[in-house]
Each structure stands twice: as structure tokens, then as C-alpha cells.
Amino acid sequence: MTLEEWYRQDRLPHIYCAGCGNGTILNCTLRATNELGLDRNKTTFVSGIGCSSRASGYTSSDSLHTTHGRALPFATGVKMVKPDHDVIVFTGDGDLSAIGGNHFIHACRRNIDLTVVCMNNTIYGMTGGQGSPCTPYGAISTTTPYGMREMPFDLCAVAEAAGANYVARWTSYHVKELTLAIRAGIETPGLSFIEVMTQCPTSFGSKNKMRQVSQMVDVLRANSILKDKADRNKAAGIPLEPGKFIVGELVRRNNPVLGGRS
Amino acid sequence: MTDKTEFLNGNTACAEGAIAAGCRFFAGYPITPSTEVAERMASRLPKIGGTFIQMEDELASMAAIIGGAWAGARTMTATSGPGFSLMMENIGYAAMTETPCVVVNVQRGGPSTGQPTMAAQGDMMQARFGSHGDYSIIALAPSSVQEMFDLTVKAFNLADRFRTPVFLMTDETIGHMREKVILRSDVEITPRHELVEGELPFRPGVDGVPGFGTFGHGLGVHVTGLTHDERGYPATDSADLHEKVVRRMVRKIEDARNEIADVDIVNPDAEIVFISYGAPTRAVQQLLADYPGIYGHLNLRIVWPFPDAKLGEFGAAKAFVVPEMNLGQMAREVRMHTNVPIVTAAKLGGALHTVAELKHAADVAATATAPVTEVVL
């Protein structure tokens, strides 16, 4: 199996906007499945609705493109019936944490053996740039024209609190680290949650003075604090600056798993 | 294996029918008066290699049984009115993706939370039209505990035959009453027509229904709720393709209504004919026993697609009487297919129709001339 064979070639080119980070994340995910030597016939991709959700259609294995926010319960059904399959979920910040928020916390609580890759571009991209539960405080969107006045979700903190066995956060800039994290997530029994902070120059950048893709990626990189450094800072009493986020492997544990290989 | 005879309530018999039909995955969320279905499945499935999961809500339950179906299992969920409403989004997804699965709705009084412990038949139109867009479904309506078992088996076979969600539209009375039931060991199971290499997952085969591309068979099937071509790939901007896809999915069921039809016809030469389904069927059967040879009866075990040709079996009918535990939902459907006057005998609140009430409705029907007459019971 080659990396190219994991792609559904007759569906390319993809529909993502120029400069979108989702293609990078799809590439890292398929690189991970290929490097692990997964059986394509025993791998299912599941997605909900939104830009992220189209990723399942570009994979050559069986795939379910489902309803808005419901990817995790669909994936739960697949996994419960086929525990020897690898089930990987593509989702976005709006899909996962707004309409799908309750499914998210319960999938983590069950610690069902899924790998969830969340493409967090902090905006509703496909619907045209509305605010999401992850839109930064003060950011402009079509539904927050005077600036977002709600605090954003920390999705990794939610996953950790709810019970996921593996939690990591990277950005679309960190392609090697991201690929390794997705590999680790697939290999870790239980729910693995990998959040990827990614750029949306079309819907987010254009409204927030970051029209250039390179600007957005630079901001993501500049705001990333490696977990080791963040831990050292915390020990020294230095708080995380507003707007910064921790990247790295945040949780790896071995709590009881639902739907794993027996 | 031999048949077992037990004294069970309808919900339990439904679960046993599902197991007999080969259902090995059940996802559900507790709601009165359906919960015994889930409880029986939770107890039984792990012992026979199946899986039960209690999901966080009905949206998730419906999603999980669709995912489980694509993973290769016969799958079912059970709910009641408010839960059925929540399932509607994913019921439309099952219709659009042609996913075989079974949904049991043990109806209670509505709208909203209404009467959790009382029977009703208020979700009949929702079963047919509840989700957005044009689609068709199959729905069965048992009127005894034995039929809860038998029609649950049939629901799974129809789901696979037509690649569609199938509903068991029962009610609190049938779900909770106890009767003798024969748990048949030799139920007929229609095999799912599997997609084979070279076929397209959404191109109809010889029987008008596409082969099912079960996940894990190496076929690399892509399934989407978006309008899709015969490969299953999204194709949302073609008016012609959308029309072709939606019309085909509706026709595969509506054109087969005579094949799907399952009715009892009693006294076809009668002038006053009762049309019933579910719990009211029992009262009609008592009326016919009390007044032998006078009234006709069309008992619908399948309500959707509506078996309209069966109305023609009653050539001497001067009026149809439709007793329902709603304000005339199926009577409206009957009206679409006949010019014979219709008397609706609606009853809400959970109390069953009495024989005296049905006799009164029949007496009104004997002189009815208006297209639709509502009798006050």
C-alpha cells in the first residue's frame, strides 16, 4: 500500500479553498494510516458536516459522510459492530463542539476506541464564516460583526475532563508532529482526540486582518507553546498568555475502553 | 430448535422478534412506553454475540444504528413520540443513503411530552412525512403481541429487501399488554442483497434496489446524505440527477405497494366497512364477533405504503369507518383513494374504542352522505 492508494483519486481535486489547512490535515492522517500499515479494508472514515467533513470523501476506504454534528454516534455504531476495524473521525470545531457537543463528551466518557481528528479553524467555513464555539474572544465573523463576546471552548480540556485516553493538539504548521500524534492516537486504545489548529484565510482571515495564508500559519506557530515549556512556565508561576495555546501530547492514559479489540 | 410459547408483553415480544430476525445491534435511549424493548435487548444481546448500547439521546441512537447497519449488522432502535421527533434528521439520512434499519415507535399521547403512559396513534403522518424532503418509507402496525413478534421479523426483511428504514408503528396498548406468543424458531430471513465487485453501490440491480456495500468487504464504498451519483459521490448541483435520485428512491417503495401490502379482509360484500390498524383493530374484531356477518373489515398490518388497491376489494361499500387514536390521520389517506363516504371515529387520551362506540359510528355511517363525517364518541 502506498500513500497515494489511500486517496480516492477520482474524487480529486478537492473542493477546499486555496490556502485551506484541511488538505494538510487529511494528508497527515492518511500518512499516519499508511505508515502504520493499516488494512484499508478494515479502516472506516466517518465525518459530519462542514469543510472538515468532506475529507472522508477523499479516502479510498469505506467512508460515511453523515449529518451535522453526529459523526461520533455514527462512528460508534460502526465500531460496536466491527470492533476489529480502525474507525477514524474527521470533524470541525462547529460540527464537534456546537451541534455535536453532547455526542463529543459522551464519546469521550465511553472512551470508545475511535480516533477523532478535529480541524479547528475557529469558524464555520462552509456556511460562510459564522462564529463557532471556538471563535476567539473579540474576533470578527458574519454573526459577530462587532467581535465575539463569548469565550471559546478549549476542546482538549473538554476531551480530557470527559475521559478520553489520548489527547493532543498541534497546528497545520506541525505536519511531522501531527502525523506522529495521529499515529499515536490510532495506536492508543480508547478515544483519541487530536485537535489541529488550522488556517481559514477565506472566512476567518479575510475578516480578521490575516488575508495571507502565510500570515495565518505564522500566527498559529507563534501562538503555539510546546507542552514542556508550558509545564516549566507553570512551575515557575508564569501563566499562559491570552491567545496562546499549548501544543503536544496532553493526555495518554489507559482507562477502560469501550468497543476495543478483544 | 423448537418454537417456544410464552406469556409476554408486546415490547418484549418485539425484542424477541428482532433477535429471531438476526438483529445483533441495538442502540437506544429510554423513553416510556417503549423501554421494555431496550431492556430486553440489553439482557439478551450480549448472550448471543450481539451488542446493546444506551446512547446519549435519540439522535445518537438513530445515527448509531445506521453506522451499525453499514458495518454489516441488522440493527434496530425503539422509542416513543418525542424521541421519534428527534430521530427525524437521521431517518431522512437513512432514506437518502438507502440504509436498512428498523425503528420501533411505541406511540403515546402527544403533542410534546403529552401522555407518557397512555396509548395513541398520533405519529402516523410523522412516520410517513416527518423528515424534510421527498422520500418514502415502509411502516407496519401490529395489533397483537404475536404480531409484535411476527411483524418485527417482517420489518427486518422489508428493510433489507428495499434498502430502507422500516418503522414498527405500535402503541402503548399493544406494547404493554400481555398475551400468549409463539416465539417461532424457524422465521424466514430474507438475505440482504450484497453489492459485488463491479456493481455500483447506488445503481439499482435487477430487483430495482441497489446491492448493499457492507463496510469491510473491500469495496471502498462512500456514503453521503448529499445528493449523490450511482458511485455514491456527492453531486449536488444537477437538477436532473437530484430529480432522478429522489424519484427512484420514492418509486422503489411506492411502486411495490401491492407486493408490500399485508391486510386482513373480512366480509368483503358488506356495506359498512371498518378500516383499522393497531389497538383499534381489537375493538373492531369484537364488534364483528358481536354482530356477525354485518360489517366488513380491512385490517392494515402495513400502513405505509398505503395499500390503496385493497379498498377496491369492498365493492358494495357504502361507507368506510376509520377508528383511530388520533384525529383522523389515516382517514385522510383513505380519503385520497376513494369517493365512498368516510366516517372518522377519533379517540384521544389513551382509552380504547368500545364496541358500543364503534356500533354508533357504524349507525352514523349507514346514513352518511358527506365525504367525511366525524362522529363524536
Automatic annotation (TrEMBL), chain A:
<dbReference type="GO" id="GO:0044272">
    <property type="term" value="P:sulfur compound biosynthetic process"/>
</dbReference>
<dbReference type="GO" id="GO:0045333">
    <property type="term" value="P:cellular respiration"/>
</dbReference>
<dbReference type="InterPro" id="IPR051457">
    <property type="entry name" value="2-oxoacid:Fd_oxidoreductase"/>
</dbReference>
<feature type="domain" description="Thiamine pyrophosphate enzyme TPP-binding">
    <location>
        <begin position="49"/>
        <end position="196"/>
    </location>
</feature>
<dbReference type="Pfam" id="PF02775">
    <property type="entry name" value="TPP_enzyme_C"/>
</dbReference>
<protein>
    <recommendedName>
        <fullName>Thiamine pyrophosphate enzyme TPP-binding domain-containing protein</fullName>
    </recommendedName>
</protein>
<dbReference type="GO" id="GO:0016625">
    <property type="term" value="F:oxidoreductase activity, acting on the aldehyde or oxo group of donors, iron-sulfur protein as acceptor"/>
</dbReference>
<dbReference type="GO" id="GO:0030976">
    <property type="term" value="F:thiamine pyrophosphate binding"/>
</dbReference>
<dbReference type="GO" id="GO:0006082">
    <property type="term" value="P:organic acid metabolic process"/>
</dbReference>
<dbReference type="InterPro" id="IPR011766">
    <property type="entry name" value="TPP_enzyme_TPP-bd"/>
</dbReference>
<dbReference type="InterPro" id="IPR029061">
    <property type="entry name" value="THDP-binding"/>
</dbReference>
<keyword id="KW-0560">Oxidoreductase</keyword>
UniProtKB/TrEMBL annotation, chain B:
<dbReference type="InterPro" id="IPR002880">
    <property type="entry name" value="Pyrv_Fd/Flavodoxin_OxRdtase_N"/>
</dbReference>
<dbReference type="GO" id="GO:0044272">
    <property type="term" value="P:sulfur compound biosynthetic process"/>
</dbReference>
<dbReference type="GO" id="GO:0006082">
    <property type="term" value="P:organic acid metabolic process"/>
</dbReference>
<keyword id="KW-0560">Oxidoreductase</keyword>
<dbReference type="GO" id="GO:0047553">
    <property type="term" value="F:2-oxoglutarate synthase activity"/>
</dbReference>
<dbReference type="InterPro" id="IPR009014">
    <property type="entry name" value="Transketo_C/PFOR_II"/>
</dbReference>
<feature type="domain" description="Pyruvate flavodoxin/ferredoxin oxidoreductase pyrimidine binding">
    <location>
        <begin position="16"/>
        <end position="246"/>
    </location>
</feature>
<dbReference type="Pfam" id="PF01855">
    <property type="entry name" value="POR_N"/>
</dbReference>
<feature type="domain" description="Pyruvate:ferredoxin oxidoreductase core">
    <location>
        <begin position="270"/>
        <end position="357"/>
    </location>
</feature>
<dbReference type="InterPro" id="IPR029061">
    <property type="entry name" value="THDP-binding"/>
</dbReference>
<dbReference type="Pfam" id="PF17147">
    <property type="entry name" value="PFOR_II"/>
</dbReference>
<comment type="subunit">
    <text>Heterotetramer of the KorA, KorB, KorC and KorD subunits.</text>
</comment>
<protein>
    <recommendedName>
        <fullName>2-oxoglutarate synthase subunit KorA</fullName>
        <ecNumber>1.2.7.3</ecNumber>
    </recommendedName>
</protein>
<dbReference type="InterPro" id="IPR050722">
    <property type="entry name" value="Pyruvate:ferred/Flavod_OxRd"/>
</dbReference>
<dbReference type="GO" id="GO:0006979">
    <property type="term" value="P:response to oxidative stress"/>
</dbReference>
<dbReference type="InterPro" id="IPR033412">
    <property type="entry name" value="PFOR_II"/>
</dbReference>
